[in-house]
Amino acid sequence: MKIEREKILEFINDNQNGHTNFQIDNFIVGKSGISYYGKYKQAIREMQCRYETLKGLYLDRELKQIDIDEANIPKENKQTIFDVKRDKIKLIKLNSELENMNKNILDSEREFVRFYQHCTYLKDKLGVLDQVKKNELEKQYWEEHLLEIAVTDIISTGRLQDNTLNTLTILPKESKLKVLDMISQEKIEGTVSSFYNRMDTCFIDNSKLIVIDIKNDDIKKLFE
Known about the structure:
Elements: H1 5-14, H2 21-29, H3 36-71, H4 81-126, H5 131-157, H6 162-168, H7 173-182, H8 188-201
């Protein structure tokens, strides 16, 4: 049996670079806090990262295409046989680089769209975010984040770890007392139960994410 180029390309096309939707939904957005606000913050950061990446990739692709167009222009000066061979190899290399660039763009576009879907879903849950509401949600986010760490400590070791206790001391007094009261020894069992119930309450129903039909150049137009 021989190795076939078509099969190699088929295998490569079957591979999905970057994050899958499952990873994005569960291990990036889904695990970012137990509140909608925590998930929203992470979704925004990830979407913005892809947005900035795509801006650079689109420009790089245009420059690469210019290089290819220039390489295709016949040389007026007299060339040796080695110059001709060298130019041919350079053109093959440029086209290969453009092909890889297009694959990277497709993956970045797919991830960008998925994070945009999550941002839209979570923004609908949170509503308008003025500064007062942001401040309150931010305080709640860090209280819940410390509670999440504390519950993990309790489940895995039966006690709070030193790093968790040190981090708790950084919280404002009101937040610190609130978290410590929730994880006091007599309330450990109830805290663990309520913690997981809270996670279920702020669960993202991925079946209700907005549907976006990606067509050629639709995403690119956002950057023009």
